[in-house]
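dumping these here so i dont lose them again. two proteins, back to back, each one seq then structure tokens. dont judge the mess
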Amino acid sequence: MVVKRPLSDEEIAEEAARPLPYFPHDSDAASDIKMRRLLRRCGFEGYGRWWRLCELMAQTDGHAVPVSTEEDAEILADELGFDGISDLMGWLNLVEDVGLIDVDRLGEGEVWSDRMGKNARFVGMQRACGKLGGRPKGSTKKSA
């Protein structure tokens, strides 16, 4: 008999902080009011930059992209195809204004999205549950 114990928030958070192998991109993402506002204000170029930013958040430990130093901001500006930091920061302020990133975290020098946080928690829960046990790795037998 296998006895499962409940997962702690610490276990889930530890797994959630690791880079994500994937994150959902809903087929109707452009219909969301925040995305519609982004599209109206900066077109498909801004929309593409948003999804590239999401990829960067997913790849980053903790899922917050740093912009606290000039070098961090220059790197992100390069990644998103901006000519400089002022263009990047203007776009980030716009993205914050439509509600896609957290204003407090931006003020602290990092780009963070609540949606990416929820995605990370979901994956972290799956990872933590997987550590509790289940079918041994490499097992091909199906249980009855």
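---- next one ----
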Amino acid sequence: MSRKLIITVALAGAHCALAAAETNAISGAYVSPMFTAVRADDARTVDDDPAFTLSGGFRLLPKWNLEGNVFRGSFDGVGGDDLDMDGVGINALRLFRYERNVRPFVLIGAGSLRKDRNLTADARDTYGDAGAGVMVAFRRAEQTGSALALRAELRARHDDASEGGRVDRLLSVGLQYAFGRRTEPAPAAPQPEPAPAPTAPVDSDRDGVPDALDRCPGTPAASNVDAEGCEPDIDRDGVVNTADRCPDTQPGVRVDARGCELRDEIRLPRVAFAFNSAELLPEAFVTLDEAAVTLRMNPDLRIEVAGHTDDVGSDAYNLELSQRRAEAVRRYLVEHGVTNTMTARGIGEREPVADNATEQGRAQNRRVVLRILSR
């Protein structure tokens, strides 16, 4: 068979696929007779002639079919050395999901092939199959559950492995008839929906106050809360009693995250950096997170982030290093939701708070503080 005829068969199969009607899945036992166009391996020295394939199988798993097939073809050979091929085999088909009424698949299989020649020796050999195809389902017969589909597939068949291998290409087009078995049960008669069971009010933070009435969601479990779900705040400074380190501050006094009065600066005692670097060490994060809470409680304060060093190294180097460290702290606070007006200034070694002659004193001098410029 010529290449032009093979292309014509493929186009005809595609045209039938586009014309098929919408349907459900095909399942159960089935049989599939198909016309097969064979492009024989050149080493066989025969023409490309038509053949016949008959497949039959059943649904093994939801996405897998197991089927057997028989093949029969006669091919004109060079110099009258014609070839008859008869094969029998078994295939496994992996089915993919339907797109409208079209279901693609891939296959793999094996079998036995008998080859009878007019002039040369006959042979019998095993073969392997691999290929892909598509099933296009027509409308199901609702009374019987049976279904009809167009089936088209292209496979490569390999045999004669002992002689270097022969590969034939087979394009098959035919019909597949599935016997009366439905894939989907008939829809059950609609049942009235049961009345919803009454549900208890939701209390996400488990403080005893339902979410609908809770003005302070997220309080720790088993906290002592009022009727609105809020922890008590005796001095009314915005810090609840359980977190307030200074529970007797005067009304109107600005306080930090611990409930203590804010004065001229906010100290950051555990903020440390890598050696000769502006990289914050992990132990600094807890202190900076608490400072961020304080500034978010007082968003109108103008802040100067002041960096200090000890006297080790030159004055110019220490000034530049302290500037970078102050900017690192400012950047961290901004990234954690602080909206206050903040500037960063490096002071270097010029304002020590301890004696630089001792290691303990130098450690105290290496610091960053938040200076309150306006209230």
